[in-house]
Write a structure and sequence with these properties.
By secondary structure, this protein is an alpha+beta fold. The chain has a single domain, classed as Porin (Beta Barrel), CATH 2.40.160. The protein has 2 helices and 10 strands; from the N terminus they run αβββαβββββββ. A hairpin with a 2-residue loop joins strand 7 and strand 8.
Length: 195
């Protein structure tokens, strides 16, 4: 399943990254063109969900970007509510990368893409002084719309995907709770700056 998903993303990336420039080269007029630029963006809504995110987008074509990504999972409210112990350490994080395709050439555009990340964290219980450690790999899709204003933009959308636990251990007793596959969904309201 993972191979099929990866192949589908690769094919869609190629097709949509070529669509806007290919049609324009054949003489179709889409009006004024607004090519993408590299940018940095911040998703503050993550404080209410599974952690705020920062992406550094690197322009590859006029409508395709790649980006390294960091999510501060320990700062998200839902991150704290979704663990099986009392306290999630605020240093819990996730690093990864992704891509976004913004078809067309207009100033404001819809987008879709994907993110893969590796995350980890620790936690504890007050009532028995137990300590926990977890790690996971997330693979999520991302769709939405981007409004561009001069060198700033606002992006709204959502993330939907799966989280594959790679470790879920109670460290003080060396108990392994097994590895689950979990569902992940987040809303997105990001603010970005192009340069």
């Amino acid at each position: 399943m993972l191979k099929r998903f990866s192949l589908l993303i690769l094919v869609l990336s190629f097709v949509f990254s070529m669509t806007g420039t290919g049609l324009a080269q054949k003489g179709y007029d889409f009006g004024e063109s607004y090519p993408l630029k590299s940018s940095i963006q911040f998703n503050p809504v993550g404080f209410l969900q599974f952690g705020p995110m920062v992406d550094f987008e690197i322009r590859v074509t006029d409508n395709f970007v790649l980006f390294p990504h960091v999510r501060f999972a320990g700062l998200g409210l839902l991150s704290h509510l979704s663990v099986d112990y009392d306290y999630l350490d605020v240093t819990s994080m996730a690093f990864g990368g992704g891509f976004r395709i913004l078809p067309g050439s207009g100033k404001h555009r819809m987008y879709f893409g994907g993110v893969a990340e590796y995350g980890w964290g620790t936690g504890s219980n007050d009532w028995d002084d137990s300590e926990y450690r977890h790690s996971y790999i997330s693979m999520v899709g991302n769709v939405g719309y981007r409004w561009r204003f001069s060198s700033m933009y606002i992006q709204t959308g959502g993330y939907l995907g799966l989280v594959f636990e790679t470790e879920d251990v109670r460290t003080d007793y060396h108990v392994d709770y097994g590895n689950d596959v979990l569902f992940m969904a987040m809303l997105e309201f990001a603010i970005g700056f192009e340069f």
